[in-house]
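Hey all, sorry for the wall of text incoming. These are the two entities for the joint prediction.
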Amino acid sequence: MTTLTRNASPAEQVLPGTRRRRGRGDVKIALFFIAPAMIGFVLFYLVPTLRGIYLSFTEYSILGEPEWIGVANYQAIAKDPLFWNALGVTTQYVLINIVLQTALALGLALLMHRVAKSTIIRGALLLPYLMANVIAALLWFWLLDYQIGIVNFLIDSIGLPKIAFFGSAEWAIPTQALINTWRHMGYTALLIFAGLQSIPSHLYEVANLDGASPMQTFRKITLPLLRPVLALVLIVTIIGSFQVFDTVAVTTQGGPVNASRVLQFYIYQKAFTESDFGYGSALAVILFAILAIVAFIQMKFLKGNESDLD
Amino acid sequence: MKKKTIGSLAAAAAAVLALSACGGGSSAEAGKGEINYWLWDANQLPAYKQCAEDFTKANPDITVKVTQRGWDDYWGTLTNGFVAGTAPDVFTDHLGKYPEFIKNKQLLALDDAVAKDNVDTGAYNAGLADLWVGEDGKRYGLPKDWDTIALFYNTKLATDAGVSAAQMADLTWNPDDGGSYEKTIAHLTVDKNGVRGDEAGFDKNNVEVYGLGLTGSGSGQGQTEWSYLTGTTGWTHTDKNPWGKKFNYDDPKFQESIDWFAGLVEKGYMPKLETTVGASMADTFAAGKSVINANGSWMIGQYTGYKDVQVGIAPTPKGVSGKRASMYNGLADSIYAGTKKPEAAIKWVEYLGSTACQDVVASKAVVFPAITTSADKAVEAFKAKGVDVTAFSQQVDDGTTFLFPIADNAAKVDGIMKPAMDAVVSGKAPASSLTAANEQVNALFK
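and here's what came out:
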């Protein structure tokens, strides 16, 4: 970013007198270019968010008029065992998903950087990500089916007991976390790979001359210099992970019992199935707050907005 | 999000209501042009397309656009349509859903039209027409079809086990020892070593073929899962039906029956609930994984349609009362309160509820039409296809049916009862835990 700005300045140095006028012209042009995104943001994010916050203080079945009830929804949520269950289930999902996904993606990125230079192989890693979430979920729903899935057929044929990947309380969340890990790790790896390429190669040469082992190089050079990228990747993936919905919606729908009733699905159930929009909105506001806090903590501790590279 | 739309929608709905209340004297636009009709069952689409064509022949100034949407999308899209004012003029309605539509004033009352056009609600099978009268005493739908429950069974696997069709037709059940129903289910169950469920050395953890299939826990209704059993004990879902205000899941009679039902899993006679997520019960039945499947009459086409699988249909067992029992559910066609063509919509609904259309539906042999004479024709049409459906129709003929529980808060009741019943059927909680769920359910009505 900084280099771009510097490149733009020579023109100003040649004609210093025109600076102010050009500046104002830039604002207009900038606004023109920002407008499409801005309109989208206001219409589809800001207004619905504010309205959602308002609705969270109301009792509202989508077909009537919202009725103001103060913080009653929030009081009810605090005592709602299904909310606390959803929070626990979602956290379990996020932990499995993020730990595995980040570790695997980092490994893949390193392989892409050092070993697999072929564009085809690098491209192939992205393939699962090109598939829609719902399709990926349904595909695995089929492959892992207890009765007719090929995975259980293989497990059975080597004499092990079959696993109800989606049907059992123990497996429902880990299974879905693994499916989404599979789908997302290629994309995450690509982001990290971009970060790896921005690390100057002379640092590695120096490390090599000093006789550093590959492990030392990784820990002392790669990881610290990758930190801003990793911070970004973690923030984006954790926020995405907390919002898991489609996989659950097309497979277990919250079950068995409440084992996969993640927050987003519970919100959907309350708002759209049970027509309790006020309660659903209050749940959504709580999820919003959780994500904001998580992102803030990450930015603060991972120092994602500064690099060690200067 | 669409506050304004709702306002204008309510205004439009009020206008329409006022309009129909006046009766007659409306603009020509209301009785002309294209109207939209929705249904969810793809199997019935050809029959209703035929009805729409015939209808336009008789009423050249009205055309009907028939749209089919799968059950999962149907209700969400319909609700969106109500909010946006784009819902279809006429749609197939379900007893579990329409109380909420009435509450939100989305349905057009049909009383005036029914009175004016002399629609004979006595032509429908007994009780069906009354299901569609709301708590306010107004009619919100004309019956189109009905369904009951029976036992589909794999005749080859039954014959191999020495169970005859006559035995299947004469089963008995009670919650204590399960009667001959449980004995038959046990005998039809086979483990990996070929040992039957009622023989010594049966390995319940390695079952190859289950005596009874499982489609799910049944949530609060158990329509195809257990209501055909609990219905013989004198137990009812609600204090009164329709429009019950109190549910009875805390009744020991009910919990005893459910304990027996969940016990089949423990004994190895019925698959674990966790294995039913995914492939449908009917498909696993076709794969020879279970011998008996209790299911609804709307599944006749599916069960008899599998290649190389010989299917018999037996009536549900005689229970504690000495009689059989089956939940009796009926669908109807309702009119959206916001329709811009109420007169055309009413004509179409009356046509759908008439012998002319219901005979067409009967001839396709997919469901039982609501009109008694048309239902008889459907039985004949099934017979012509080589399927004996008397196991379903005899429940109606013998008067052993009970109505689908109609009550407010259906979605919220389901939100409580589905996890609670899942926990019981999966063996994680005893049926007595349903008492707590019942308290939550009844709290919705206070």
